[in-house]
User: Fold this.
Amino acid sequence: MKKMNRGKCLLLCLSIAVGFGADKKDAPFRPEPADKFETKQTIEGLTIAVQPFDDPEEAKTAFGKLNPYEHGVLPVLVVMKNNGKGTVRFDRIEVKYVAPRGRKVESTPAADVLYLKAGVRPKVSNSPIPTGGPRIKISKNPLKNDVIIERGFSAKMLPPGDAAHGFFYFQTGHSRGTSVYISGITEAASGKQFFFFEIPLD
Assistant:
C-alpha cells in the first residue's frame, strides 16, 4: 500500500509541475485596459494608450526570449477601447514615432521586421586547410520569429464596447521627450476621419 501511495503522490506532483509549466509557457499576453495607462488620450469615445517596450524585463512578458530592442527595433504597445457609439475602422491607420525636434519615424510592418538584418553580421574564420580560403558563416536572424507577427496590431475594426491591442515596430532608439502620432482612424458608417492622436511616451 505504501508503494502505491508513493507512486500516486509522485504522479500527482509531476502532473502539477507539468501543468504549471504549460500554463506559464502558453499564457497569452494581456496588457491592462487602456484607461489604466498614464500615457493615453481619448477622442470621441475612443481611448488609445501607448507604451514603449525598451526594457528587457518588459520585453520578456510579450516576446519571451526575444528582445527586439536589442536588435534595433523598438516595439510600442498600443491599447484601444471604443466607448463611442459607432464602430471604428483601422484600414487606413498610420502610426509614427515622433522623436525630439519633430523627427518622425514610420512604423515597419510586422511581416517586414522578420527580414530586417539588424545586428546580424557574418562570422569569418580561417579554414583548417592551409590552402583553403576563409569560411563565412551567417548567424540566424533573431528577428525572424513568428512572435513578432503574433504580437503585432492586427485589428481591422473595433465595435462599440470592444477593446484591441498590439505592437507597432519602429527602427529607432528610444529617448525621453518622444511621442506616438496616430492618424487615419475612421468611423465605419460615415467614413469620417478621427482627429489625430499624439500621445507622449514619457
Q: What stands out?
A: Helices lie at 2-26, 56-63, 110-113, 146-151. Residues 2-26 form the longest helix (25 residues).
